[in-house]
Amino acid sequence: MPPIGGIWPLAAPGGTRWYPAQPRNTLHTMDATPLLRLRWRLSGAWLWPSFFVLTLADAAIVHELPLSGDTSESLVGTWLLGAIFSLIGIALLGGVAGSLVRRRHPDMPKAVARNYGGALVTLVITLALLAGGIVHHPVIVADRAALQDAVARATAYIGDHAPPEFQSNLGAPITYEVQEPIIYRICVPNLAGDRQYCVVVDRAQAFGRSVHYDGSESNSLLS
């Protein structure tokens, strides 16, 4: 017997009893595709947050571990460098990386997979910058040690041969790298700052013969 007014009949001793019909669970009959897509999109929205965080990491890495040269660039400059590398990587490799992600998760929407792929590309770029900085760091350490050695030779020579007005200012040498890490031109100004005493240091020579007087022209004329 069908329910009447939402009441189901139930045969029982002594007569028929009526019970309220249980409501149907319509959630199971709903299309789950939109919910699944929403879940993928929420879990895959990592591209731009990771871009922001990792480019900040790029700035710190390149500032502390330069990829070339001996001096550190500003944090703004290194952040721009990391951001440019990441944007180029996302544009060129984000789609490829997204395709690889979809191979592991075929049910993932293409846009979400590309999002994941772009985030992976930014991570790989950060790791590459870190690796490059670590590889180049011994060169920086060696170049700085060479410069310190050249300055020590120059100040020792100037302290023995220069007039007193330059000997009193040995703590302010001005260096110019002629042929790093071998030949340097180093000048010491007098206290008034209107004259300089300059020498050329050749680290390939023995300590006592490695320094020669080279006039008073400023190193700024050579750079």
Write out key terms for the chains shown.
5 helices; 223 residues; two-stranded antiparallel sheet; single chain; alpha+beta
Topology:
Layout: E1 7-12, E2 15-20, H1 33-43, H2 47-64, H3 75-104, H4 110-161, H5 164-167, E3 174-179, E4 183-189, E5 196-202, E6 211-213
Antiparallel strand pairs: 1-2, 3-4, 4-5, 5-6
Helix pairs in contact: 2-3, 2-4, 3-4
What do you see in this structure?
With 223 residues, the protein is α+β, with helices and mostly antiparallel strands. The protein is built from five helices and six strands. It has helices at residues 33-43, 47-64, 75-104, 110-161, 164-167, and strands spanning 7-12, 15-20, 174-179, 183-189, 196-202, 211-213. A four-stranded antiparallel sheet has the order 3-4-5-6, with helices on one face. Helix 2 (47-64) crosses helix 3 (75-104). The longest helix is centred in the middle third of the chain and has 52 residues, at 110-161. The model is unreliable at 4-8 and 26-30 (pLDDT under 50).
Helix content: 40-55%
| Oligomeric state of this protein | single chain
Strand order of the largest sheet: 3-4-5-6
SSE arrangement, N to C:
EEHHHHHEEEE
Number of strands: 6
- Strand percentage lies at 15-25%
Nutshell version of this structure?
With 223 residues, the protein is α+β, with helices and mostly antiparallel strands. 52% of the residues lie in helices and 16% in strands.
